[in-house]
Design a protein that fits this description.
mainly alpha, 303 residues, flat
């Protein structure tokens, strides 16, 4: 009889025990996550062994890499999972994305004419994948930071974490510059070159637009890269300032490679922000050097 009532009691209290179990699991997960996050902001002693010694030790004991490989596998798996989710979300709104990217055309998306049977499907897949990658980019960069953070000192960890939103802002700013300023100036020139009319195809048009937006977004990351290199002591602001003429020549070559047209107007549209970003990078490099410790400055002066 006692066993019968005990069974009835377990059945009646089962929903409540299930809710309590869920609450405890969520609490444990949150507590573990908070501990993991706080561990990234603890000032721990980092072994500053030279790279040569580290490589020699790794060659002698390859098993020491296994924990790092396992950690990298976990971070990559989470990053890929995030891209799968964002790609699936992008697929739900791919029609709106295609229409938005076709806005620089006079007739919008209706001006595009497909020729191949599978052209539309390939275009949709390409735009969906690129949109998913772009949306997941902040989280992917965050996973990269989580992987390298244990090897950095506390100050470098904080700077790296703060650099993530700056990198996203610069990348999106570069894409916006390409879409709103560069493409409206380049497309009329391309479509009416030498008085020859052009009928744009979905595959060629979206491939062209996405590549331009991506590479211009990458070039806008230049100031952040220079700041990080200067902070690590790999480059000096004085060197950048003295080599500005050579930098302009290199920027011109890069602009010619990125620019979709051969006319100087569109090439100048690409060069102008890159030159401005270069001089901003000099100021950021100088600022990074001022924040270095006296010991770091002494090591940098010997370079």
């Amino acid at each position: 009889m006692r066993k019968f009532f005990h069974t009835i009691w377990k059945i009646i209290t089962a929903p409540f025990r299930f809710i309590i179990w869920i609450g405890r699991s969520i609490g444990t997960t949150l507590n573990k996550g908070a501990q993991n996050v706080s561990s990234y902001f603890k000032d721990e002693e980092i072994d500053d062994a030279p790279i040569g010694d580290t490589l020699a030790a790794t060659i002698e004991n390859p098993r020491a890499l296994l924990p790092h490989i396992n950690a990298l596998r976990k971070h990559l798996l989470r990053a890929v999972l995030a891209m799968v989710i964002t790609t699936a979300i992008s697929f739900l709104f791919v029609r709106e994305i295609l229409s938005y990217l076709a806005a620089p055309l006079a007739g919008g998306i209706h001006e595009l004419v497909a020729i191949d049977v599978t052209e539309n499907i390939g275009t949709v897949m390409r735009v969906t994948l690129l949109s998913g990658f772009t949306i997941a980019l902040p989280y992917v960069i965050f996973e990269v930071w989580l992987f390298i953070a244990p090897a950095l000192k506390l100050n470098s960890r904080i700077k790296g974490l703060l650099a993530i939103p700056v990198a996203i802002f610069l990348f999106v700013g570069g894409m916006a510059f390409a879409f709103y300023i560069m493409l409206p100036a380049a497309l009329p020139f391309l479509f009416n070159f030498m008085g020859l009319s052009t009928q744009p195809r979905p595959s060629s048009y979206y491939n062209f637009v996405t590549l331009i937006m991506f590479w211009i977004g990458v070039t806008f990351e230049f100031p952040l890269v220079i700041y990080l290199l200067a902070n690590l002591g790999l480059i000096k602001a004085k060197t950048l300032a003295s080599q500005w003429r050579l930098a302009i020549v290199i920027i011109a070559i890069l602009a010619a490679a990125i620019t979709p047209t051969v006319d100087p107007v569109n090439m100048g549209l690409v060069m102008a922000p890159m030159i401005v970003l270069y001089f901003i990078s000099i100021g950021l490099a100088y600022f990074a050097q001022r924040n270095r410790s006296p010991k770091q400055k002494e090591a940098l002066d010997k370079v």
